[in-house]
Amino acid sequence: MKYIEGYPIQETAKIIRIPTGTVKSRLSRARKALRCIMESKHYYTRLTLCTQLCKKITTL
To answer: What is the CB neighbour count within 10 angstroms for residue 8?
Structure first.
């Protein structure tokens, strides 16, 4: 919501009813995972990691 919809962290937390610290930590983990995916040299590895990340994020 922060990056796609442009909501501030506080508003995102309010909408999904979780603490702002949780929003921040989830964003941090997602950025770290995405960085790892993008640094991967192999397309298949990137695709697999991206798929796993998307599944994990949608279940949070």
So the answer is: 12
Q: In the block, which residue shows the tokens 């937390």?
A: 13
Distance CA 2, CA 23 (A): 9
Residue 60 has pLDDT above 60, yes or no: no
Tell me the HSE value of 29 on the side-chain side, using a 13 A CA sphere. Answer: 11
Q: What tens digit of pLDDT does each residue of 15-55 get?
A: 989 999 999 998 888 888 778 777 766 666 667 777 777 77
Cα gap 8→27, rounded to integer Å: 12
CA angle 34, 40, 46 (to 5 degrees): 65
The first and second tokens of residue 53, run together, are 């990340």
